[in-house]
Amino acid sequence: xxxxxxxxxKNYDWGxxxxxxxxxxxxxxxxxxxxxxxxTHPDGQATVQTGNGTSQLSEVVGxxxxxxxxxxxxxxxxxxxxxxxxxxxxGFARENNLGVDRxxxxxxxxxxxxxPELLCxxxxxxMLCGFAPIEQSLALAEKNNWFELARHLKLTxxxxxxxxxxxxxxxxxxTNLPNHLRIVxxxxxxxxxxxxxxxxNHITLKAGQAMFLEPGNVHSYxxxxxxxxxxxxxxxxRAAFTTKHVDLQEFFATAKIESHLPQQVTQRDxxxxxxxxxxxxxxxxxxxxxxxxxxxxxxxxxxxxxxxxQGHSGSLHQGQACIxxxxxxxxxxxxxxxxxxxxx
Length: 344
Prior knowledge:
7-stranded antiparallel β-sheet; 8 helices
């Protein structure tokens, strides 16, 4: 029998007060619902109902190597990046040796995992992702009379310009900001993060499209609803646009500050109903199943997670998730879309 999950709710200030409650059929409570975590990470464990009452998911299936989230973005997230597994292991040990409590505000490494992320848009989803070619950024800066930004790009290059923007405190918000950054300019006026955002690729995914973010990728989500699949990690190096802890030393140590335009993930039909997300070297696999008539799925892996993102699938309603252990089966019904995730 499938094991139904109750996710951990995260009320971050960038969340949406409407999107996730409505998506999951829950009453609105006037709080910003940012993320629903379906996994076993200690910072937000899903729970399940057992014969003995409510139990943490890890007590039922052990520790999952992956984490699935529903996220709703109403305000920009921090400009951030994530470490490699080697960086995470070293950073976690270093902070432990320094005696920094794992739940402390200034703790950067909360576990020993890297955090590659697959983002699958459920609506139009706006993001900043990676840095644009320097020639493109320079032309844009000169066109809009962002003279100081242009001068730094010409004289010092991309990486040093990003460092100047984040380390220098005496900035003035540029005029003529593009539409996608106007809210950033209002919320974070006169901060260097605005200059960094001007140097990044602005990407809008349509519903159904996906992007894979490897460790070191610098990004910020701006607006939209999505499914995220990642390693079971909460290691985030923040640089700007946040009230959470900013650690520029760790950000620069882990970020890839180079021109790069991430490509959308290729989606390959593996059967009539199933699409595979082709992601290289990821510690998890993801499928999207479109159900048009009754079908039965059997789990082939030790633990698999199923998340319904559209319609009523019999065992699952939109916004609900369950766990299957190897050889267990799930009955799906018509007119629904379900994500299937397992660890590699």
